[in-house]
Amino acid sequence: MTVSLQVIYPASEDATFDYDYYEKTHLPLLEEHWGDMMDTVEASRGIASGPDVPPAFLLIATITFPDMETLDTAMAEKGGPIIDDVANFTNIRPQILVGQVLMS
């Protein structure tokens, strides 16, 4: 069963997010530490939550893994550097959703 790890960065007035750092440093860090375990990585920068409505989220990253065991191993054995890097590009504490992929 394919599982997804979604990392969700909510928008707020005081939120900061360095998209350049995220793209050039954080995403390669994912590849360095989890590359052999991940199936896919997708990051979407929020641009709107509807017509003339600012985005509710600055960014949502979706990473898929072949199964829950692989995700657990990724987090337990190689998640530290990735989690520690979050403070380098945002002051937001991300929300996390682990899900079962129903369709891809």
Topology:
Blueprint (H helix, E strand, L loop, with lengths): L2 E8 L8 H16 L5 E6 L11 E9 L2 H11 L1 H6 L9 E6 L4
Antiparallel strand pairs: 1-3, 1-4, 2-3
Protein name: EthD protein
InterPro entries: Dimeric_a/b-barrel, EthD_dom
Organism: Phaeobacter piscinae
Give the % helix: 25-40%
Mean pLDDT: 96
Number of helices: 3
Unreliable stretches, pLDDT < 50, 5 or more residues? none
SS strand fraction: 25-35%
Q: By helix and strand content, what is the structural category?
A: alpha+beta
* Morphology: globular
**Distance between the ends:** 12 Å
Strand order of the largest sheet: 2-3-1-4
Largest sheet: 4 strands, antiparallel
Tally of DSSP β-strands: 4
Structural commentary:
It holds the Pfam family EthD. Residues 17-90 form the EthD domain. This is EthD protein. By secondary structure, the protein is an alpha+beta fold. Helices cover 32% and strands 28% of the residues. It has helices at 19-34, 68-78, 80-85, and strands at 3-10, 40-45, 57-65, 95-100. Strands 2-3-1-4 form a 4-stranded antiparallel sheet. The chain starts with a strand and ends with a strand.
